[in-house]
Amino acid sequence: MRARRPVSFFRSVRFRIAALTTLAVAVAATAALIGLRQAFYWTLLHEVDRVLLEDVAEVTLVINELSPEGLDAIADELTRKAAGHKQHRWFARLLAEDGDRVWRSSDAEGTPPAPAKADAVPRTVGDLRTLRAATPTNPLGIASVQVGSSMSLYNDDLELIDRLVAGAVAMILIVAPLCGYWLAGIATRDLEAMTAKASSLRPTQLNERLPYRGVDDEFDRLADTINHLLARIATFVDERRTFLADAAHELRTPIAAIRSSIEVALGGERSRESYRDLMEQVLDESESLEVLVNQVLLLSEANATVDRAEPERVLLDEVAAKAADMFAGVAESRGIRLECDIAPDIAVNGIRRHLHQVASNLLDNAIKYTPEGGRVQLTLSDADGVARLEVADNGVGVSPEDLPRLFERFFRADRARQRDDTRGSGLGLSICQSIVEAHGGEITCKSRAGEGTTLTVQLPLAVDS
User: Fold this and answer.
1) In angstroms, rounded to a whole number, what is the distance separating the alpha carbons of residues 97 and 113?
2) Residue range 344-392, pLDDT digits in tens
3) I need a surface site. Which of 6, 75, 112, 323 has the fewest CB within 10 A?
């Protein structure tokens, strides 16, 4: 057995879960922080615009109230306001209809010119936020007002936010992998336990199962699936062991008979007739041995052959009719009436020779266990997408205690009801069941001792392409 190679750290499920968790957390957190930063920026900008609109309304009010006193009175009032907002570099311009300057505050020196339109729409120019709005008609010829302030203080706040966001992202990139790896270890702990348990399983310990925690999560469902697989494997292995043991037991009888006959022949001088009798016994046992070996091979290969071969469209009515023709002479020689009711054009997908084997085995069994003067009925019909092949007889039947075991390999029903010429291997019905199930069908049996037996095969009909 090849030693199990340790899983590379970077290929381990734990590492991949941790990496994906880190990536997801990092992307989500970074997007959230950037979104918060952008929301903060738009909030600040909205606040600046609101203040500028309030400033325009205030300047317009000053113009309306002080225009009778002259431009100097208005300039003094606006100069005081500019001095009160020195830290924001607040400035104002009073403009005529043609855009010429009527007056400006000292902080307006060196600032960009006023916007061309007095539409009261805030604009950013460099590090300044400004807007121009129209004013009511007044005797001083002031048609519009421009106000503005610096964004430097707000930009400083945004730079601080950017540094905090960068620091938070860096912290997330450090903490997320550690937490992710720790959480992934918790999540995969049960998987590691299952792996360790699975690696300890041996072909001689197929009764062992993976642990089931009872929480019905993905790991429990995986353990349940593997345990079902192990149960099927254990059943398969047990069946194979039983099959081999039974086959060896069945093969022992004809081999022992052949050896005994040969030992008798070699034990001393005998007449020609005696040697002929011994050779005939050897031949009979050899033929029985050949039949048994062929049936064992057919039984062991039935499923594999169907799986490997390409199924063909088989007319089951032709197969049934051919099998009936083959056994018509046997039935007549034994005084048994063989009746057929075969519906035409019933097709299934499968292997013709295997389906013929099924029909032949069923007819052979029915004729074997039907006394002289009895009747065997072969019926083929179809309904609800299923082909139904039925072989019924009024023979010896099967006892209720034997009926559940009828399809077991090498099982023979009560010998008290068998004729001397009905010796069989006990594999015929097992072969039928194996072939039918490999074709996706089902075989069932109804029987009453002394009244007869009915065996029914159901196969899915071929779908016309």
Assistant:
1) 15
2) 999 999 888 889 989 988 998 899 889 999 999 999 999 989 999 999 9
3) 6
Would you call 108 exposed, middle or buried from its count of C-beta atoms within 10 A (0-12, 13-18, 19+)? buried
Instruction: Report DSSP state, residue 310.
Output: -
The model's pLDDT over 104-161, given as tens digits with 9 standing for 90+, comes to: 998 888 888 888 888 999 998 888 999 999 998 888 889 999 999 988 888 888 888 8
Cα torsion 167, 169, 175, 176 to 10°: value is 180
Q: Residue 387 in contact with residue 459, Cβ under 8 Å?
A: yes
Residue length of the chain: 465
**Distance (Å, rounded) from C-alpha 293 to C-alpha 311?**
26
* 377 DSSP β-pair partners: 339, 392
Report the C-alpha gap between 378 and 390 in whole angstroms: 6
Q: Which CA distances in Å does 303 have to 270, 296, 299, 337, 457?
A: 49, 13, 8, 34, 17
201 CB-contact burial (10 Å; exposed 0-12 / middle 13-18 / buried 19+): middle
Question: 215-224, 258-267, 279-288, 431-440: which has the highest mean pLDDT?
Answer: 431-440
Q: Nearest Cα to 320, choosing from 302, 344, 299?
A: 344
Q: Which residue has the higher pLDDT, 39 or 271?
A: 39
- pLDDT of 35 > 80? The answer is yes
Span of 233-237, 381-385, 459-463 with lowest mean pLDDT: 233-237
Question: How far is residue 122's CA from residue 47's CA, in Å, rounded to a whole number?
Answer: 12
In order of 39, 385, 400, 462, the CA distances from 164 in angstroms are 15, 71, 84, 71
- Cβ atoms 74, 66 nearer than 8 A: yes
pLDDT tier, 98 (very low <50, low <70, confident <90, very high otherwise) = confident
Spell out the alpha helix ranges (H) of 99-211: 152-199
Helix axes 71-84, 13-66, angle to 10 degrees: 150
Q: How far apart are CA 390 and CA 361, in angstroms?
A: 12
The model's pTM: 0.49
CA distances from 168 to 27, 158, 295, 335 (A): 12, 15, 76, 98
337-350 b/e (C-beta count within 10 Å ≥ 16 → b)? ebeeebeeebbbbb
